[in-house]
Amino acid sequence: MPRHGPAAAAPCPCRPPSRLSHIAPVQGTFNHGSCDGILYAGTRFQPTAGSTLAEQVALQDDGAAMKYFTDRPGAGRHYVAGAGFPAAPRGCAAIPQIPARLAALWSDCRS
Fold it and tell me: CA spacing 20 to 30 A to 39: which of 2, 15, 61, 81?
């Protein structure tokens, strides 16, 4: 059974694979949960203090879409998918790497 938590204030140890280092989850978009022993997280990102103009411009593209991560026992955290921009009409239910049961609990990531 999946577990779910819309953790607006929870830390997100996730980073998308990119050149961006001054970023943080956008409040209200961070979802996390567990399904079949695998931890999942999804969020959008925003620039933080110290961000460069190049990072701010890049976030207009990179940060506009949800990013999804897994944390498997013994394998660590990994970026698994990004939601394209604009997002698919089915939200994260359209992301094959996110279990359907978890996407449903996350309201298909439509935050």
Answer: 61
Work out the pLDDT band at 11, boundaries 50, 70, 90: very low
CA distances from 54 to 86, 92, 96 (A): 22, 28, 31
User: Pairing state of beta strands 3-6 and 31-35?
Assistant: antiparallel
Helix locations, 36-85, DSSP H: 53-62
CA-CA-CA-CA dihedral for 50, 53, 55, 60, to nearest 10: 130
For the stretch 50-74, pLDDT in tens is: 998 988 888 876 666 888 999 998 8
Q: Are 95 and 68 in contact (CB under 8 A)?
A: yes
